Amino acid sequence: MTEIVNRVKESSLTSIDLADYKSKKKIVSVDIADVLWQGLALKEKDFRAWAKEHDWSSYSNKAVYVICSVDAIIPTWAFMLIGSKLHESGAFYVIGSKIDLEKSLIKSRISEDNLDDYKDGRVIIKGCADISSPEYAMSELIRYIQPVAKSIMYGEPCSTVPVFKRK
Fold first, then answer.
1. What average pLDDT does range 58-84 have in this prediction?
2. Which of 53, 86, 88, 132 has the largest count of CB atoms under 10 Å?
3. Distance CA 85, CA 119 (A)
């Protein structure tokens, strides 16, 4: 009887699972609407007092998105002030939606990959993963690894769709 050989495992293919790019940080929000005067306007003195007294350390090592969930005009400096406080606390943050944050986390995680792992390689990006905005993650992976990869495919090793091949 002949031994069964896993040709995919023995090939020079590098498989990337999108699930590896899903952040493990806890995601929380800061909603400026919670500190508006009568839910309508931002009063600088009150806002600065809130920013000074707020427990920013509770955001340490978390992923934070900063929004205003009501229709109000918020001056740019207010977002800057919150960003400064979050930065000091060690939080990863974006000014925008939860999806914006998840995309930023994905991009950050992709940029941590060592490009030498893909140099002149044949790469397969697996598509089935529980990740927000998989199209975004895939396009960022392409942007990151295409300059060094020999070829990039989508799918599973047994059934791939060619995406890029260096000439």
1. 96
2. 86
3. 39
Candidates 6, 1, 13, 11; CA nearest to 149 is: 13
* DSSP category for residue 61: T
Higher pLDDT, 43 or 131: 43
> What's the mean pLDDT in 78-99?
97
CB 95 within 8 A of CB 79: yes
133 and 154 both lie in a single domain: yes
Range of the domain at 17: 7-23+115-165
108, part of any domain: no
Q: Are 53 and 85 spatial neighbours (Cβ–Cβ below 8 Å)?
A: no
Write down the mean pLDDT value for the chain. 91
| 8: pLDDT strictly greater than 70 | no
Do 33 and 77 reside in the same domain of the chain? yes
Read off the amino acid at residue 37: W
CA 141, CA 18: separation in Å to the nearest integer?
9
With 0.70 as the threshold, say if the pTM is over it. Answer: yes
